[in-house]
Input
Amino acid sequence: MRALLLLLVLNTLPLMLVGEAESDKLQREYQKQDDKLARQSNPIKRAKILIKMSQIDMKEVALQVQNGDLAAADEFLKRYIDTIERVRQALKDSQRNARKNPSGFKEFEISLRKQLRQLEDFRSSYSFDQRELVDKAIQTAQDHQQEMLGAIFGLDPANLKQEAKQKGPAK
Output
């Protein structure tokens, strides 16, 4: 029995250490991007840095979900929601016409599209009563994606929301 337990611990220890090393690497990269953000005054460049930060957040969530630590994953989901709110605000602050010059807007929409697929995958790892934060992240990302599409293509975001509701949830 002890030998079996020892074997189990020895087999899972390397996976845990790899996960911690990966998390440390991601935290260093996040801090590097945060330092760049502090030095940047151009709203579009700030938005692009924040997009990278949101991608790091998603990698952290994936790592924590893979390790079965949903409480830690939730903390990164909160940071992710805050980060995409900051991207949206930076793009709004740019007062740029997204139809004429979509740089930043387009990158954000593409990033959100990929992240929404990831969030849907994460959702299945949570039990029904633990999904509130994942659902909030999904809703926030969908809202921002619709807003970016509206800005880029000159469509009314309210009409896009209406069409999305009629088609059903994103898959």
